TrEMBL record:
Pfam families: BPD_transp_2. This is Xylose transport system permease protein XylH. Keywords: Cell inner membrane, Cell membrane, Membrane, Sugar transport, Transmembrane, Transmembrane helix, Transport. PANTHER family: ABC TRANSPORTER PERMEASE PROTEIN YPHD-RELATED-RELATED, XYLOSE TRANSPORT SYSTEM PERMEASE PROTEIN XYLH. The lineage of its organism: Bacteria, Pseudomonadati, Pseudomonadota, Betaproteobacteria, Rhodocyclales. It is found in: Cell membrane. The chain crosses the membrane at residues 12-32, 47-66, 78-96, 102-119, 126-143, 163-185, 205-222, 228-246, 274-293, 313-344, 356-375. It is a multi-pass membrane protein. Part of the binding-protein-dependent transport system for D-xylose. Probably responsible for the translocation of the substrate across the membrane. InterPro entries: ABC_transp_permease. It comes from Uliginosibacterium paludis. Its main location: membrane.
Length: 381
């Protein structure tokens, strides 16, 4: 019993650290099995480009789950919006600068449509998502006529395949490290102002040094191949924006409040219905962005695009420590969960593991992640 209690306490306090250790073990295993090929700059660059699409979905999904809801339509919505973008490019010859806002607006409207059914018409989100999964996939087949549509616009393709110049990558890493120092110092000053506990300076410095080493290693590795892929850069921007929204805005606090205690939040004067509908609108935006990126990366709109994408996004959130009961979770954890899912896909593909074994492994890890959430919650109580 004491061992189980220790596991509960450790996982509850150090979820992100446990996830990073899990990634290190997964990468070490696949590097051993592939004679080091898994850890080459080219493979890791491709891995990160692949996981960026799942990470975009996970950024929106983590807020939906925190609010106590679920969205099963995101994979089909991704496919539909990516297919619409391909049709606008090939059939209507729209320039990408015009194609992009149209598809983003369509994604927002579809997300708000889902959210309206859930928040105002009180249809369970599971049913709305299931219906959307079927409807959006059907519309996608109709839009593409069941065939793959090759993209013609070079600027569109560059959105998913371009790389940041090497020099720009190093400049970006310095700016990012500077921002980390700024936010760390601001957080420390705010805690002192409100007489809250503050970590010793050596601990803060050690954390910043570790972050600096990770950033430098990450950028150096990617620059040794072609540079930072544009989808990865976009994913990092979303990570910063969504993390800021969760931690430092009124809307972010309301998301957690709605998931923790819906009735108490409503009685406190918060328009909980509007909050939930807004979250699904945000989810629609992420589906549009992921759909555009996926179509650009493949240089084609496919009727099978986004298949099972909702399961990867949901699994990424749960693996990243988002509670299935709502009210708890982080965007960083969801991104790390997406990296774990992508690492498993990439590594098992390199080992030529049969597709059914890949599904078994990913399903088992999802089950394990939810079980860890259950026992860590029991430890907190």
């Amino acid at each position: 019993m004491s061992t189980l209690r220790d596991i509960q306490q450790v996982f509850s306090r150090y979820k992100i650290l446990a996830l990073l250790i899990a990634i290190a073990l997964i990468w070490a295993f696949f590097a051993w099995q592939s004679d080091g090929a898994f850890l080459t700059a080219r493979n890791l660059s491709n891995l990160l480009r692949q996981m960026a699409i799942t990470a975009m979905l996970a950024c929106g999904m983590v807020f939906v789950i925190i609010s106590g809801e679920i969205d099963l339509s995101v994979g089909s919505m991704l496919g539909l919006l990516g297919g619409v973008a391909a049709v606008l490019d090939v059939s209507f010859h729209l320039p990408f600068w015009l194609n992009l806002p149209i598809v983003l607006l369509l994604g927002l409207l579809l997300g708000l449509f889902n959210g309206y059914w859930i928040a105002y018409l009180r249809v369970p989100s599971f049913i709305v998502g299931l219906a959307g999964m079927l409807v959006f996939r059907g519309v996608l087949l109709a839009v593409t006529d069941g065939s793959t549509i090759a993209i013609e616009s070079e600027s569109f393709v560059d959105f998913g395949q371009a790389y940041l110049p090497v020099t720009a990558g190093y400049v970006l890493s310095v700016l990012l490290f500077g921002l980390m120092i700024f936010f760390n110092l601001r957080s420390r000053a705010n805690r002192k102002r409100y007489n809250l506990a503050v970590a010793p300076w050596w601990q803060e410095c050690a954390k910043l040094v570790a972050i600096g080493i990770i950033i430098a290693g990450f950028v150096t590795l990617l620059n040794s191949y072609e540079g930072i892929p544009l989808p990865v850069l976009l994913m990092l921007v979303l990570l910063g924006a969504f993390s800021f929204m969760a931690r430092s805005t009124v809307f972010g606090r309301r998301i957690y409040a709605v998931g923790s205690n819906l009735e108490a939040t409503r009685l406190s004067g918060v328009n909980t219905r509007l909050v939930k509908m807004s979250l699904f609108g945000l989810m629609g935006l992420m589906c549009a962005l992921a759909g555009l990126t996926n179509t650009a990366r493949l240089a084609a709109g496919s009727p099978s695009a986004g298949n099972m994408g909702e399961l990867d996004a949901i699994a990424s959130c749960f693996i990243g420590g988002t509670s299935m009961r709502g009210g708890s979770g982080t965007v960083l954890g969801a991104i790390i969960g997406a990296l774990i899912m992508a690492s498993l896909d990439n590594g098992m593909s390199m080992m030529s593991v049969e597709s059914y074994w890949q599904m078994i492994v990913k399903g088992s890890i999802l089950l394990l992640a939810v079980w860890l959430d259950v026992i860590s919650s029991a430890g907190e109580r």
